[in-house]
Please model this.
Amino acid sequence: MTVYSLLFYLLSLLTLAATAMAVTRRHMVHAVLYLVLSFFGTALLFYLLGAPLLAALEVIIYAGAIMVLFLFIIMMIRVEKEDDRFFPFLQWWPALLISGGFLAGLLALSREDLVRQPGMTVAQALPQVFGIHLFRDHWLAIEIASLLLLIALVGVLHLSRRRRADAIEEAP
Amino acid sequence: MVLDWLLGMIVLLVKLGLILGALLFGAAYLVWAERKFLARLQIRLGPNRAGKFGLLQPIADAMKMLTKEDLVPDGADTFVFKLAPVVVAVTAMLMFAVVPVAPDLVLFGRSIPMVIADLNVGLLFIFALSSLGVYGVALGGWASNSKFALLGGIRGAAQMISYELALGLSLVPVVMLAGSMSLTEIVAAQERVPFIILQPISFAIFVISAMAESKRIPFDLPEAENELGAGFHTEYSGMRFGLFFIGEYVHIQVLGALTAVFFLGGWRGPLLPPVIWLVLKIIFVALIMIWIRGTLPRLRYDQLMALGWKVLIPAALVNIVLTGVLILLV
Model:
């Protein structure tokens, strides 16, 4: 076993354990922290695969931006302590469906040799090459994604505007 | 083969030791410099009892903080409370890992790069760490189980979300000009002209948003001592408080180094050796930041948000487009 495979198993163990803790914690802030740790482990796995760009993006976007927002919201709304109630049954089915589908996809992928696949090449490419590939060959997908984000932005603005108008009406 | 590996390891450890030692020493004496300089700005003397010119004051402070009782407030989330100062100090120190302090050194026919890790995504590495640093502030404030600390922590998180974007966007033109995100390459690209001359708008946006990231006056809303006690670190005492302090002053040095690398030509300069030039530039930026602290009042919260979202981010976006047009034309 080389140093790399040892590191791989250690990091995978860390990521899996952190994710399991994140899913099972009742305390919201602790769950967020474990999830951050899990993203960190994933980022290090990317780095180990020779993709520092993906590692940096994983930390910046997921651990750094999205989870900070989660934490911000949790700290703001101050969730009341729930009694020992597990998730309702209706929420089990979508969760099982999604994780089952993911597992099936992963198993199918693990049968192929991924080292020479285009996905791996792109992930390991230099930032310049990656950027040119992304914005020249996939510009339509980027534009669609940015349009979607713009729509979400406009939607949020609309919702908050309407609520503010209500508040002003109720005020006097 | 094994010898090469061992030699590389030893060189790396020596570099790590030197840089961390210099950063911590710098942090201690930056506190002294700040107290002295600030005192002069306010027509006071500043520390002058411990040693000549109060030069032993940082050592006395460190002894005091290390020997103080370590208090964890009642009802605090103990683990998170203890973790928060570590996150602040460690993320600030790790950022220095990608800063090149000098050109490659040739020793016994081997070329030794004078940087701990020359990542080709060095700039993103810095952003990643700076976005993790806010966890220390937000969690420290939350875990203290005190409303003032919590308010400080929430302010810290909101402030970071507003200023990280401007910080990132202000550096896009630098990357466009250098053609790389590696800090070594960015310094190399400034061989003829430092980027402050080519990108004055970027420089201004970077300095303002970097000061907001470092949470100092005029952007010290997470601390805001006359509203919130001491903000997110109200409940901290002893060396845990000391770690927050070390984090802040290491962060100032890192910001000085980054300003030097991105806009002032890094270690480049005439006559003096490169390392000295970098240190001089760091001290210069740090003194300017202390001067600003002594001059400006704190921004109100809505002013802070408006400045970030309505002024800095649009200006940075326009600047990126202009830079793109100029690069295409020239």
Summary: The two ends of chain A are 73 Å apart (CA to CA). Residues 3-123 of chain A form a domain with the Four Helix Bundle (Hemerythrin (Met), subunit A) fold (CATH 1.20.120.1200).
